[in-house]
Amino acid sequence: MESLKGRDLLSIADLSATEIKSLLGLAANLKSGSIELRCPRKVLGLLFQKASTRTRVSFSAAMYQLGGQVIDLNASVTQISRGEPTIDTARVLDRYLDVLAIRTFEQTELAKFAQYADIPVINALTDLEHPCQILADLLTIQENFDDLAGLTLTYLGDGNNVAHSLMLGCALVGMNVIVATPIGYQPDESVTQQAKAIAGDRSQVLVTQDAEAAVAKAQVLYTDVWASMGQEDSADARIPLFQAYQINSHLIKQADPNAIVLHCLPAHRGEEITEEVIEGSQSRIWDQAENRLHAQKALLAALLGGV
C-alpha cells in the first residue's frame, strides 16, 4: 500500500490490478473490524459542484472514523462561484488540507486541480468517471463470489461515467464486462478501447444493443439512472428508448441463477429497475451502498499513508 501514499485517484485506471486487490482486502478487514487504522489530525476537503448523498456522507464518515476532520466546501458559498480561477483555488486548498475529494462536471477541471495541488486529489464523480463507486462495487462482488477473475458483469442502460469506470475496473481485475445500451447512448469509444487494451486476452469487454443476450449467464447485473445529473431535461424522452434495458424479473431469469443485482443509486423505481428486483433476494444494493464507506476509508488511509 506504500505505493499509493500521496497519489491522486482521477480514474480507476490510475490503479493497478494489484493495488485494487490490496484496497479491497484492506476495506474488507476494516469492515470486519479485524484491523483499525488512524489518520489523526488529517483534514479532508469535499468540494462538490453536484448533488450527493452517498459520496458525501460516506467520505465524511470514513474520515471521522479514521480520526480526521472534514470540511464541506460547498462550491456555491466559496469564491469559485464568483469565478476564482481553478489554479488559484487549488493552490490555496493545498496549503490547508491533507486530501481533497472533488465532484464536478469536466474531467479536465479535476485534472487541473490535481496539477496545481500537491495533496492527493480524489475523483468523487465527474461526467467521465466515478472510480470510488467501482471500488465499492468490486468489494460487494468479492463478498458474494470471492474470486473476481472470470466473472461476468452486465451493465444495462446509459453508457455514462459509471459504465466507463466499470469497464476499466472490471478489465483490471480480470472480469468480463458487457455494456448494453440503446444506439446513440454507448460508452465513449476511447474508454471502450482503453478497457479492451487493459483486458487483453484475459477477459472480454463488449458493447451491444441486445439486452437479453447481454445478461445470459452473467453473475452480476448492474444499472444506473437513464438520465444522469445535468441530463434531467431529456429524462422523459429516454424512457421508451431504454425500456428494453430495465432490470426486471424477466431479465434476471436469463442470468446465472446465483446472479446478484447492483445499482449505484439513487434509483428511479419502475424505470431502470423494478420495485420487485430492488427489494428482492438477489439485490445487494444496500450492501453496495454501505461498502462506499469501507472502500473509501481504505482509500483515504492508503493515500494519507495511514496503512
TrEMBL record:
InterPro entries: Asp/Orn_carbamoyltranf_P-bd (IPR006132), Asp/Orn_carbamoylTrfase (IPR006130), Asp/Orn_carbamoylTrfase_sf (IPR036901), Asp_carbamoyltransf_Asp/Orn-bd (IPR006131), Orn/put_carbamltrans (IPR002292), OTCase_ArgI (IPR024904)
Residues where carbamoyl phosphate binds: 52-55, 79, 103, 130-133, 264-265, 292
Pathway(s) where this gene product acts: Amino-acid biosynthesis; L-arginine biosynthesis; L-arginine from L-ornithine and carbamoyl phosphate: step 1/3
GO molecular function terms listed in the Swiss-Prot or TrEMBL record: ornithine carbamoyltransferase activity
Enzyme Commission (EC) number: 2.1.3.3
Catalytic activity: carbamoyl phosphate + L-ornithine = L-citrulline + phosphate + H(+)
Residues forming coiled coils: none
Broad class of where this protein is predominantly found: cytoplasm
Keyword annotations: Amino-acid biosynthesis, Arginine biosynthesis, Cytoplasm, Transferase
Residues the entry annotates as binding L-ornithine: 161, 224, 228-229
Domain Aspartate/ornithine carbamoyltransferase Asp/Orn-binding, first and last residues per copy: 150-302
Residues of the Aspartate/ornithine carbamoyltransferase carbamoyl-P binding domain: 7-143
Pfam families linked to this entry: OTCace (PF00185), OTCace_N (PF02729)
UniProt xrefs under Gene3D superfamilies: Aspartate/ornithine carbamoyltransferase
Family: Belongs to the aspartate/ornithine carbamoyltransferase superfamily. OTCase family.
Name assigned to this protein: Ornithine carbamoyltransferase
Organism for this UniProt entry: Almyronema epifaneia S1
Gene: argF
